[in-house]
Amino acid sequence: MKKMKPSGSLKTMMASLLTLGIITNIVYCNKMVKKEELVLVDEDILAPAVYEEKIVDDSTNKKVLEEVSNEEIEVVPPREEVYDGMTMEELTAKLDNILSSDLSGMGYAYAKYSIELGVDPYLAVAISMHETGCSWDCSYLAKVCNNIGGQKGTGCGEYQSFSSLEEGIYEFILNIKRNYVDYGLLTAEAMNPKYAEDATWAYKVNNYIEKIKNS
Predict the structure, then answer these.
(1) Which of 106, 105, 103, 112 is CA-nearest to residue 83?
(2) Domain residue extents for the chain
(3) What angle do CA 137, 122, 142 make, to 5 degrees?
(4) Architecture, CATH, for domain 81-213
């Protein structure tokens, strides 16, 4: 389209419109700014050009942000599984279901040290129950010397004495790690020839493992 210079009459009309404030008319409605402008589209022809702008109400936005920040948001920690699809709390409860006599309530110690040292907690508890006889009444070594699993040493005849039952449990699990797990002996069957002369030892230990799983 060929650009045309406004004629004298058109200039006069535009000046009048400017004086009357018609060319730009701003209307506030429903948080919107509506602007109308008359633009020259051809010789002596004016047409309105209309566009809208969003008005941001800072005070309203601030109120919404304050309401959100003041709400109590419950933070749910992620589920941390440590063994066999269980959390530490669930594993502790499962081990406590089988531990009895002097070993009652020591599930957390078994769970904690087994996980830390890379020993199967079911296996550690099963050997403890078999060796100490704690299904009925714990052995003298467990009761008096806090010795789990008959660990050799001093302080309790030819066996090691420990200051607490938890220390005895830790040293017992550490012994399994150092002398069996670190050599790739991870099950009762694999441990049997080295751990006990009784050929049925693994069978007895596995019976306790089944009780733990079904508890």
Answers:
(1) 112
(2) 8-57, 81-213
(3) 30
(4) Orthogonal Bundle (1.10)
Q: Six-digit token pair at 125?
A: 């508890």
The pTM assigned to this predicted structure is 0.65
pLDDT of the residue at 131: 92
| 3-class DSSP assignment, residue 25 | strand
Please give the average pLDDT of every successive group of 10 residues along the chain, which has 215 residues: 51 52 42 48 53 52 58 77 94 96 96 98 97 90 94 93 97 97 97 95 97 92
* Nearest to 92, CA basis, from 124, 121, 62, 126: 121
Task: Specify the length of the chain in residues.
Answer: 215
| Coil, helix or strand at residue 102 | helix
Q: Write out the two tokens for 181.
A: 């797990």
CA-to-CA distance for 139 and 159, rounded, in angstroms?
A: 13
- Predicted pLDDT of residue 135: 86
In degrees rounded to 5, what are phi and psi of residue 152?
-70, 155
Q: What's the rounded Cα separation, in Å, for the pair 31 and 11?
A: 35
